[in-house]
Amino acid sequence: MTVNDAVSKRVVALLKEKNMTQYRLEQSSGIQHGHMQWIMKGKSKTVTLTTVMMLARGFGMTVLEFLDDDLFREGNLEIE
Description:
The protein is mainly alpha-helical. It has helices at 3-17, 22-29, 33-40, 49-59, 63-67. It has a single domain (3-73), classed as Orthogonal Bundle (434 Repressor (Amino-terminal Domain)).
């Protein structure tokens, strides 16, 4: 799994966990709808640290809390 895939899966899981809509996340994070669609579909090839920070802020958590998931364990990711 790529880092981009892991971010997408983490966002989907957090939306469910926090009973939050994608629209609300877009509004609270400042990420534009088009970019969010690419992230959600796993098509984004350039999920940057800035984007992760914006997502974390949108969820009301720190970057470390966002990344604290088995999805981001080194053995689970393809590092290119």
